[in-house]
Amino acid sequence: MGKHEFLTPKAIANRIKAKGLQKLKWYCQMCQKQCRDENGYQCHIRSESHLRQMDLLKESPSMYMQGYSKQFHDDFVKLLSRRWGTKRVHANLVYQEYIADRHHVHMNGTIWETLTDFVKYLGKEGICHVDDTQKGWFVTWIDNSPKALARQEAIMKKERAEKDEEERTRKLIGDQVERAKKEAEELGLDDKEIYTELKRETEEEKIKLNLTLTKSANLTLNTTDKIDSAAENISFPTTSISFSKPSTQKKSLSALVKKSNPMVTQKKEKDKEQPKKLSAMEEIIKEEMEKKKRMENFKVNGNKGDNRRKDDYKDSRNNRDYIDREIRDHRDYKDNRRDYRDRERERERSHKEKDREYRERERERDRDRQYDHESKRIRRE
């Protein structure tokens, strides 16, 4: 029985069936031919071309097996490295994507019987990191390219340099601390320090600092509303550092704390009289309260503002009419735009349908012409 013509429905159906993946047991790796059923496979293995290929395979089976295994290995690793890189991925997922290609090398032509054996081989050769889990075998590609190795070496050098820098700075800081402790011991200074907190309740308040250093130095700290003091005994020559007018008489810290300054009390009263600055939230609340008060006064006064209310009503009515008119115009404009878009879509749809019909007619004419040409050629033969 002869073959069907090229453009007959049977020939087209056969070509469509042959496009996708078929069953692996009906595939011949030597001939690289996929059969669609058992009958076709049996016919193929009895054909002369297949028998010739089998004779070649009998001469050197290991050579063919090694060649197919190498090709399968290279293609699998190339797909793994390009598609997933150095990420951890399920081995079966990689294999499913690999066999999606219709012309791939099948595993039944390689030295590995199962995918598990192949994955174990990759782990032994050091090509991938392999781990077995409850979900199956996972593989991670190891990038041994010169660029990757150079990149890793540069990263390690950078980390090493950062660690060396941190250690160096830590050592310098430790040396400085030890040097400072030794100098303090030589000068007879105490390590303990007394810290006082600087506070001011208002922004306009000024802070005055009186620093006097003597053999038994006194450090005084005066604020306009509160006096907190701190003192240290430092064995330096007598010096005087002041940011305010220095006092003529030397006073102890306890005397300064006990005595109250009349100027400070006067300034306190002035600060209390001055209103505090309000925050944005407080200003909004204050405005709302003032509005409520105005509304209450308006309700109490009653009919005093009738004329003003009438004018306001007219203005609001005119504004409302204007807004309604604008809304109607905007709605009409949107409706017109929508209608215009619908008409454009219908026009495009009709044009596409016409083009499709025209192409189909042209295809039918070409098919008829080709069929007539083939039939004439067959008649001549």
Contiguous helical run count: 11
| Physical arrangement of strands within the biggest beta sheet | 3-5-4
Distance between the termini: 18 Å
**Which term fits the overall shape?**
flat
Q: Rg to the nearest angstrom?
A: 48 Å
Report the biggest beta sheet as strand number plus sense, adding barrel if it closes.
3 strands, antiparallel
Assembly classification: single chain
- Content of β-strand: 5-15%
Count of distinct strands: 8
Order of helices and strands: HEEHHHEHHEEHEEEHHHH
Describe this entry's structure for a reader:
This protein has helices at residues 9-19, 38-45, 48-59, 61-83, 91-98, 115-125, 146-187, 253-258, 262-273, 280-301, 306-380, and strands at 27-28, 33-34, 88-90, 128-133, 136-141, 207-213, 218-223, 239-242. The chain is mainly alpha-helical. Among the domains are: 9-112, no CATH class; 207-272, no CATH class. The chain has a three-stranded antiparallel β-sheet with strand order 3-5-4. The longest helix has 75 residues, at 306-380. The radius of gyration is 48 Å and the shape is flat. The relative contact order is 0.04. Residues 215-259 have low confidence and may be disordered. InterPro entries: C2H2-Znf_KIN17 (IPR056767), DNA/RNA-bd_Kin17_WH-like_dom (IPR019447), KIN17-like (IPR037321), KIN17_WH-like_sf (IPR038254), Znf_C2H2_sf (IPR036236), Znf_C2H2_type (IPR013087). This is C2H2-type domain-containing protein. It holds the Pfam family WH_KIN17.
